[in-house]
Amino acid sequence: MPTDPAATATPAPAAARPHPARLGLGTAAVGRPGYINLGRDADLPAERTVEALRARTHTLLDAAYAAGVRYFDTARSYGRAEEFLGQWLTEHPRAAAEVTVGSKWGYTYTAGWQTSGVAAHEVKEHSTAVYDRQIHETRALLGDHLDVYLVHSVTPDSPALTDPALHQRLAALAADGVRVGLSTSGPAQGDTIRRALAVTADGRPLFTAVQATWNLLETSAAPALAEAHAAGRLVVVKEGMANGRLAGRNATGPDTAPLRTLADRTGTTPDALALAAATAQPWADIVLSGAATPDQLTSNLAATGLRPTSEDLAALATMAEPAEAYWRTRAGLPWS
């Protein structure tokens, strides 16, 4: 629901708070031992075994569901995240009947459960052959619990926007009841989203969901996301924490000073305020938390009790970087 800009950034009355269901839980940080989020050495168990990360994922899913979160996000390239989520859904049939599950295809996980010495942790290919393989793999792990299936990390040059054979496959999946969409990345997200809005199959819009990066440092996709929302697309915000750059332990430089100042003044935390700024965008249907620990999840979910004022949002807007600079920094973050 849209947020009332006349409210305050301090905790609002319970009846006025955004519902927790507007926050989702992403599994990129816990489905594989290596990722680019800052501070992973402190976030994950010292022994990043499959069983240790399975247990961590299930703990986070338990806590998120208990708190009212009803959207869970995963992907083929997130190591064994689809497996972990599928097992949790099987063990929690009541929750499985209530939640929305989104996954993504188009990247293949290639790190072999390693964190270093890997030439590439994932390889992108938006071909019909990869789709045919990965939809089978996703179905094997998630079964009927697949509600949204996104082409992973689409850029303007992706064949996912132009390949008619792929479009027919995706249209068949949509006819089977799965919402088909795409996630975007890179400095041309807005261009990608607008091109996707124009794609049709059998005379109907094909891509009815968009997952895009939006955070206080990277706001360039906002106009296109507003257009997608107005056109009836599901809009999901990813990387609202800028891969940890907006977490309190990392938000220490001049680029995040407005966030720290407002968080201190209102008695909240930078991460909760950053996610509250995302949920305040009227076009955002779901905002993902990428928490890797239960404490991080609790802190992230405090965003549901905040409603930044228009003055607060204007102050935070000064943090935005040029899109090219933001994505150049992101590309330099190490896998750990």
What does this protein structure show overall?
This protein has 336 residues and is of the alpha/beta class. 38% of the residues lie in helices and 15% in strands. The protein is built from 13 helices and twelve strands. It has helices at residues 40-43, 50-66, 81-91, 93-98, 128-142, 164-175, 189-197, 222-230, 257-266, 270-279, 294-301, 310-317, 323-331; strands at 23-26, 71-73, 100-105, 107-109, 122-124, 148-154, 179-184, 200-201, 204-205, 209-213, 234-238, 286-289. Strands 1-2-3-6-7-10-11-12 form an eight-stranded parallel β-barrel, surrounded by seven helices. The chain has a two-stranded antiparallel sheet with strand order 4-5. A two-stranded antiparallel sheet has the order 8-9. Helix 2 packs across helix 3 (81-91) and helix 7 (189-197) runs parallel beside helix 8 (222-230). The relative contact order is 0.16.
Quick gist of this model?
With 336 residues, the protein is of the alpha/beta class. The chain is built from 13 helices and 12 strands. It is 38% helix and 15% strand.
The tally of beta strands, per DSSP, is 12
Percentage of residues in helical conformation? 25-40%
Radius of gyration: 19 Å
Unreliably modeled segments: 1-18
Give the helix tally: 13
Strand order of the largest sheet: 1-2-3-6-7-10-11-12
Overall pLDDT confidence: 93
Shape: globular
Q: Oligomerization state of this entry?
A: single chain
β-strand amount: 5-15%
